[in-house]
Design brief:
Blueprint lengths: L10 E3 L2 E4 L1 H11 L3 H8 L6 H10 L8 H6 L3 H11 L1 H7 L3 E15 L5 E15 L1 H4 L6 H4 L3 E7 L6 E5 L2 H5 L13 H7 L2 E4 L4 E5 L2 E5 L6 E6 L2 H7 E4 L1
Parallel strand pairs: 8-11
Antiparallel strand pairs: 1-2, 3-4, 4-5, 5-6, 7-10, 8-9
Helix pairs in contact: 1-5, 10-11
């Protein structure tokens, strides 16, 4: 297979073309937790084997892109790619977001032991909803619309491993304030986390969740429909098992 000079090739990251090898390495290091994740998601063709070998050798020496570097990038689309690679958790933590709502729910959920016998597990589940000022995301942007466009994310923890997760939510979900309603914001962390789950049947009987995998049990009235986001009420009433 023909070899090529890795430093003379331009690379695409998150669908955005035109990155040098040095730039791409910094973005990949920020985006992927380990070299295995990089190899799995980027090196998908034999023609990229040489790149994969090179990145494997230098992985531990790469310095990931930082929030401060991303904020200095003048090109909007390149800045978006940087933010995507950095990730919502690090982005929100470093830019001092505003806590809008925090709720703790005491849950009783069904789990199964080593003998596949069901038992009831009790725990407290915490949800936090944050707002990130648009002027912090786009400090050099002359477009006032961009500077006033705030970002929103819900923060939660895995009920089994206690691992922390941050997920973007749109403004109208975060604040329960569609543009045509003209009412005071009503931030709700539970509504925000519910919105992150989509199902495609009506009248679901109950929901099982294991990490990112969501399984919905049908009822006799259920019909397949276009996927839709869970409501707060569905999230609180239908969740049967969470691990």
């Amino acid at each position: 297979m023909k070899s090529y000079n890795l430093h003379e090739v331009q690379y695409a990251v998150n669908g955005q073309q035109g990155y040098s090898l040095t730039e791409a390495l910094k973005l990949w290091k920020a985006k992927f937790e380990t070299i295995k994740h990089f190899q799995r998601d980027v090196i998908k063709h034999p023609a990229l084997a040489e790149l994969g070998d090179f990145v494997n050798e230098v992985w531990e020496t790469i310095t990931p892109i930082t929030v401060s570097e991303a904020l200095k990038e003048p090109a909007l689309e390149r800045r978006r790619v940087m933010f995507d690679c950095i990730g919502v958790a690090k982005l929100f933590k470093e830019l001092d977001p505003l806590l809008l709502d925090k709720q703790t729910i005491h849950k009783v959920r069904t789990r199964w032991n080593e003998k596949n016998e069901p038992y009831k597990h009790q725990f407290d589940d915490i949800y936090e909803l944050y707002q990130l000022d648009g002027s912090k995301l786009f400090p050099t942007e002359s477009n006032n619309t961009m500077r006033t466009s705030n970002g929103y994310a819900v923060r939660c923890w895995c009920t089994t491993t206690s691992r922390e997760y941050w997920m973007y939510v749109p403004e109208h979900i975060a604040l329960n304030n569609e543009w045509w309603q003209h009412k005071d914001p009503q931030p709700d962390a539970i509504r925000a986390i519910a919105w992150t789950i989509m199902i495609d049947i009506t009248y679901p009987k109950r929901i099982f969740r294991q990490g990112d995998i969501v399984i919905v049990e049908e009822s006799e009235q259920s019909q397949v429909v276009t996927p839709y986001h869970l409501s707060k009420e569905q999230y609180l009433d239908l969740m049967y098992s969470e691990t």
